[in-house]
Design brief:
This protein is of the alpha+beta class. It is about 40% helix and about 15% strand. It has a three-stranded mixed sheet. A hairpin with a 2-residue loop joins strand 2 and strand 3.
Length: about 90
Amino acid sequence: MAEHAHREITQRELRNESGAIMRGVERGESYVITRNGTPIGKLIPLRRRTFVPRAEVMATFATAPVLDADRFREDIDSAVDQDPFSREW
């Protein structure tokens, strides 16, 4: 599946054509907002899920540290008060 293209619009277009742009968002369109030719944000519909290509996900996690699940659980258990009602206030 190909990545969804975002239409590029200027800050001025967003201000002057906000009604039409919002109707576009309701239809599922996405926009990249620019200021002085520099992209500064995205306007995307909330109802739709954004497809993230597998290669992009794998590249993101490739630099993540390896997690030892047992060690992680031990660390959490040692940091959390196992009996929260044992304290005197």
